[in-house]
Design a protein that fits this description.
Elements (H helix, E strand, L loop, with lengths): L3 H15 L3 E6 L5 E9 L6 E3 L4 E3 L7 E8 L23 E5 L7 E6 L8 E5 L8 E3 L23 H7 L19 H7 L23 E3 L3 E6 L9 H8 L45
Parallel strand pairs: 1-11
Antiparallel strand pairs: 1-4, 2-3, 2-5, 5-6, 6-7, 7-10, 8-9, 8-11
Pfam family, one: Thaumatin
Protein name: Unplaced genomic scaffold SPHSTscaffold_114, whole genome shotgun sequence
Keywords: Signal
Length: 290
């Protein structure tokens, strides 16, 4: 039989575990961003306008599995954007965070994807925990195909801006990234400058993709923060990643395998989450020029 103090301890642990899964987004960019969310399981706040210098709790369920796509210059619905929406397929560039809280209880698997191009720098971090790696990317100058707006860069899978605009970054039937899997004509700009970010779908070494970079983290701490425009870049080698994650890292699949999914435009019909704390949309720049 538990004594009162033990009962209180167990109760506290149960409460802690119940509320352990969390996802916050902090916008360090100088302009308002639009957070378009896509889910394969669980729930999350949809279509969030987040002002410069603001942060928000995305209100995820413990079994959420999906992605956050970042738009700039968007209206409140995400149907009109300078980058990202409304198609969210790389016709205009966007940065993407992919997270899976559902696969392993008490663990979140995550990555940053610039497969569809990039419009803001990004970082995914935890406050510690076994196997956790903080990934970050702030692209330097020299983008091979500049995108619309102040600072965006088209997908490395496209040979030209016109190709991305016409078909998206990963069109059905294959595109600039061969079979929509391997490195494209400009993927090297992304994987050389940001080795801990997906530049093409098999950038993790799947199906013999090269380079096989350390781009997926399996973290036993489900309190995660996504920071936009972090102003930093990580260079964690694959060898260190394998030590951190164990050999199981080689067997992990991407948390949200959107590279081979069709985007569901219905996602744009989801509720719009806004707050009086969020700033009005502006046309400010989002980070240093690349």
């Amino acid at each position: 039989m538990l004594n009162p103090s033990s009962f209180l301890l167990v109760a506290a642990l149960l409460v802690s575990n119940t509320h352990a899964a969390s996802l916050k987004v902090y916008n360090k960019c100088t302009g308002t961003v639009f957070l378009n969310t896509a889910s394969s399981s669980g729930t999350i706040a949809h279509n969030v306008l987040l002002g410069a210098g603001k942060s928000t709790d995305m209100r995820i369920s413990a079994n959420w599995n999906g992605a956050i796509n970042v738009g700039t210059g968007c209206d409140a619905s995400g149907r009109t954007c300078t980058t990202g929406g409304p198609t969210w397929d790389g016709r205009t560039p966007f940065s993407r965070a992919e997270l899976n809280y559902a696969a392993i209880p008490g663990t979140v698997i995550y990555d940053i994807s610039f497969i569809y191009g990039a419009n803001v720098g990004m970082k995914i971090s935890s406050s510690g925990g076994t196997g956790c790696a903080n990934f970050a990317c702030t692209l330097p100058k020299g983008c091979p195909i500049r995108g619309p707006g102040a600072n965006s860069c088209y997908s490395g899978c496209c040979r030209s801006a016109a190709e991305c605009k016409a078909k998206g970054a990963l069109p059905p039937g294959g595109g600039g990234c061969p079979k929509n899997g391997y490195a494209g004509p400009h993927s090297d700009f992304f994987y050389k400058n940001c080795p801990n970010v997906y530049a093409f779908p098999f950038n993790d070494g799947a199906e013999g993709g090269k380079p096989a970079n350390y781009v997926v983290s399996q973290c036993k701490n489900t309190a995660i923060t996504v920071t936009l425009c972090p102003g930093e870049t990580t260079h964690i080698p694959k060898s260190l990643g394998l030590l951190l994650q164990g050999e199981a890292q080689q067997q992990m699949s991407r948390p949200w395998d959107a590279s081979f999914d069709e985007y569901d435009p219905q996602a744009l019909e989801d509720e719009v989450f806004d707050s009086s704390d969020y700033l009005a949309l502006d046309s400010g720049s989002y980070e240093e020029d690349f």
